[in-house]
Each structure stands twice: as structure tokens, then as C-alpha cells.
Amino acid sequence: MTAGSDEPGGPAQAELRVPGRGAGLRDVARHRFLLKLLVDKEIKVRYRGSVLGLLWSYVKPGVQFIVFYIALGIFLGLEQSDRNPDGLPNYAIYLFSGIVLINFFSEALGNASRSIVGNSGLIKKIYLPRELFPVSAIWVSGIHFLPQIVILVVACLFTGWSPSILQLAVAIVGFLIAAFLATGLGLIFGAINVYYRDAENLVDMLLMVATWASPVLYSWEMVRRQLGDTALSIYMLNPLTVSVETFHYAFWLPTTDQQFALPPGFLPVWLPVALAVALFTVILGQHLFRRLEGRFAQEL
């Protein structure tokens, strides 16, 4: 069949495409209206029959913060005080700035990895770009992230927050690192989960480790003090470590006397490395997703 002639061998041969495969993430940009519909659907379904609704975006991180603050800040002495001058000043800000970012990543990756299986009814009935489902999960997590970041900013203002333009810009880059990493891994595990449901359990374990494998609850200096510089370098290869540290740099550090140092080479080395790793994860996730999406409907 040809696009410009009824005869075989015409001048404009139609491009042959494998059924069920689109243009990848480019299709998401072309179908922004569908993306909005999916995001609206996810929010409505999630809070259907819920009394608090979107207020859960405040309640869940609030309870998590209180538990960690009491256990670590007070009982284990990570909060700076007269009895513990070596602790972290404004530990509440330090803790919450890490929690809001790691919660965004955890929710985004967890929902994205289940998005294809969770929308199996749509996928088996009609064709639409399958990347829309994991990407919509990331967007929903971003919507839940907004009220948490508002609370963080308000709390920072009460403690004398005065960030520089550089610090705010670094925080935006840190958020993009977490978003890109969640998107790439969401594409990978979302596709694998169609074929092997064990992927959901693996993601749950990874997310459990993620909170402790990045400086959300403790400082990076504790890693260097306990394990040495080599271990710290390995630790900094984790993009989430860098992402969380950007939020500490932008939100927590300006509320202190700013005498606390960043990890060695943080801005010139580790920030670009983390962004490159996150972008590579997106490329890898898109490649794997496109190779596997052709049999999604059959497998589901």
C-alpha cells in the first residue's frame, strides 16, 4: 500500500509500523489532552468514597514526619540541643524537606510501576500511547507534592528562611532528577510487571530501602564518618542522595548559620552526574518499554 499512488512501487511508500507501537514519550506530548483526562481519572478514582480526599496529601507525610522526628530527632538525639550540641539545627526542617521529596519519588514510582496492569481494561479495548499511563502516575504524584512543598516553605519562613537564587535553582534541578528517575524506572518496572507480577514486590522493597539509602533521616557526614570517603563517593552515585541533598541545600541550609558544608564536589560533580544518570534511566526505560509494549494486550 502506498501513500501517494494506488500502484505498487509508487513514489511515496507508506511507512510500515509494528502494530501496538507508537513514537514513545513523544506521543505523550502529542496527546496532552488524553494525559489530562487520565490524571483527572486517577485523582477521582483514588479518592472516591474518601472523607478526607486530597487532605491525605497532608495527613500521611505529617504522621510520617512526627514519627521520625520523635524517634530520631528526640530519642536518638539527631536534633541539636543544649545536651547535644553536635546534632543538626532545625532538624524538623531538615527531616521534612527530605520526606516531601522521597514521598514524591516513592508514590510516583510505585504508581507508575502498577499503571499498565491497573489500566488493563483500557489497554485491551483501545489503542492509545501506553506511556501515558506511567507518565500520568508521575503527574498525579506531582499534584500531591504541591501542598507538601507549600507547608515546607511556610515552615521555613517561620525559621528565617532566606534562600539565594542559586539554592532555589538547585532545588528545581533536584526535583527534576527525582521526577526523571521515577519516570525511567516507572517505564521499566511498569513494562516488566505486565509479564512478571513479582516486579511490584521488587519495587516495594526498593522504595523501602530508598528512604534509608539517601540522607532523609540523617546527614551525609555520618556516612563519611562511619564508612570513609570511598563509601561516601559510592553513596553519592545514588541520584536520590543528590536529589534529597539539593532540598536540604535550598530549604534547610538557609535556616541555619550556613556553616554546614555540602558533600565534596556536590555542585560541580555530583549534581551533573545525578542528572545524567536520571536522564539515562529515562532513555533506557523508554527503550525497554517500547520493546515490550507490543504484547501488553495479549499478556494482560
From TrEMBL:
Domain ABC transmembrane type-2: 52-292
Domain of life of the native organism: Bacteria
Keywords: Cell inner membrane, Cell membrane, Membrane, Transmembrane, Transmembrane helix, Transport
Subcellular location(s) of the protein: Cell inner membrane; Cell membrane
GO molecular function: ABC-type transporter activity
GO cellular component: plasma membrane
Membrane topology value: Multi-pass membrane protein
InterPro entries for the chain: ABC2_TM, ABC2_TM_bact-type
Single Gene Ontology BP annotation: lipopolysaccharide transport
Transmembrane regions listed in the UniProt entry: 62-79, 91-112, 132-158, 170-196, 232-253, 265-285
Cell inner membrane listed as a keyword: yes
PANTHER family, per database record: INNER MEMBRANE TRANSPORT PERMEASE, TRANSPORT PERMEASE PROTEIN
Protein family per UniProt: Belongs to the ABC-2 integral membrane protein family.
Protein name listed in UniProt: Transport permease protein
